[in-house]
Amino acid sequence: MNIGITGSIACGKSTVSDYLIAKGYTIIDADKLGHVALTSDDVKRKLAEKFGDEILENNEISREKVGKLVFGNDDNLKILNSIIHPKIKELILKLQEEHKDENLVFLDIALLYEANFVDLVEKVAVVYVDEDVQLERLMTRNSLPKEEAIKRIESQMSPREKAALGDFVINNSYSKEDTFQQIDEILEKLKRGDKQND
Q1: 1-25+104-186 architecture in CATH?
Q2: Which residues lie below 8 Å from residue 167, measured CB to CB, with a gap of 6+?
Q3: What is the pLDDT of residues 176-188, one digit of tens each?
Q4: Binding site feature residues
Q5: Binding-site annotation: residue ranges for ATP
């Protein structure tokens, strides 16, 4: 069964993924696949056609230059996503196929809902934190001033909105131990579900 792990910025998806990896589960990291997608000749060609050859450095896509083009520019972001998301989806499907014999495979993906990747998973676990905790963590983690952190948070779906859509919610507002206990409970539910489906 493929399980999505999602959450808004600074909610702690990595904490959840790292714990699952330590327990021996396969995690497909969509962010890493995004970097892989940028090395694809097809993606490079399409991006260079749209944004010009100046986004290339030594025939590779400069993530920094692309970042500057799309930050705060919705049109450019839509173009980037329309080119890169199909490639990421293709890479995810390939990895899911490779791991299809495993009972549970997790897809760590921030934009599960925003990028319409929900069809790639059977269940969704949303990592949630209270908005004030999210703001504080983002400011600390990325050394951002409050206004900049708020802008980044507001560019995504809120933790509350995502939590309402998920099958499971992991409240990561408290201690790591508390978070890990919630993950273990979800794993038990998923395993029981597997047995019921056999």
Answers
A1: 3-Layer(aba) Sandwich (3.40)
A2: 123, 124, 125
A3: 999 999 999 999 9
A4: 10-15
A5: 10-15
